Amino acid sequence: MRKIYIILLSLCVLLSCSREEFVDEAPKPEPVNENPTIPNLIFPANNQVCTNFKLGFDWEASSDANGDAIAYQIDIATNDTFENILFSITTSETTRAFNLEKGNTYYWRVKAIDSKQSESEYSVIQAFFTEPDAGVNHVPFSPSVISPKPGEEVSGNIITLDWDATDTDDDPLLFDVYFGTTNPPVLLAQDISVSALDVNGSPNTTYYWRVVVKDDKQGVAIGRVWSFRRNNM
Fold first, then answer.
1. What percent of the chain has pLDDT over 90?
2. Residues with Cβ < 8 Å from 73, sequence gap 6 or more?
3. Quick check: 212 and 220 in contact, CB under 8 A?
4. 3 state SS of 54
5. How is 192-206 classified by DSSP, letter by letter?
6. Dihedral through CA 177, CA 183, CA 186, CA 191, nearest 10?
7. What is the mean pLDDT of residues 152-166?
8. Which residues are CB-neighbours of 181 under 8 A, at least 6 positions away?
9. Distance separating alpha carbons of residues 70 and 18, to the nearest angstrom
10. With the CA atoms of 45, 49, 53 and 59 taken in that order, what torsion angle do they form, in degrees rounded to the nearest 10?
11. Which pTM does this prediction carry?
12. pLDDT grade for 14, boundaries at 50, 70 and 90
């Protein structure tokens, strides 16, 4: 009887040790690295006319849930698709100065990058203009979308394309509208003076559209291609 008791006690000790070893060897979850928040642009403001050509750019600091150090990538381009980037600089500061040319329209954006290389999305894109010499015309700003928003799902057979466009000289503006199921879209309306246009949409179809803005002094701004989807409602 005593021998059976000793054997059972020994088995319990072995099982207990095995259980502790199993717990110790269990993998620990990796800490989750969260992306930093998206920076907010402060200066130059959207559609601002700037008279200083060594211009200081300013944006709000991002936060990081893990407390990682944050750097910022600032891009400056001559179009809102950033196909022609003039400057792309990474800095740990929230301000940076650049020398720019007179009489040009520029677009800028900023994203945050933490020390583990996690990135925020880019900020909203803001446009600004550097004042030209007297008597010099400048092109209109690229159009901005009002509705449908990029990627939006819409319903109804009639869809209103709505956009906004501005010109620092307050020149009268005309618009060419491109629309269709292919990218790039095809010309739908030319030299219209209103900034909204009704189009017909078919269910379960993705549409692409863009707007070209023209002033009366041959200044032209080509907008980016936007898309939306007509649902089955």
1. 50
2. 88, 89, 90, 110, 111, 113
3. yes
4. strand
5. E-SSEEEEE--TTEE
6. 20
7. 94
8. 205, 206, 207, 208
9. 45
10. 0
11. 0.56
12. very low
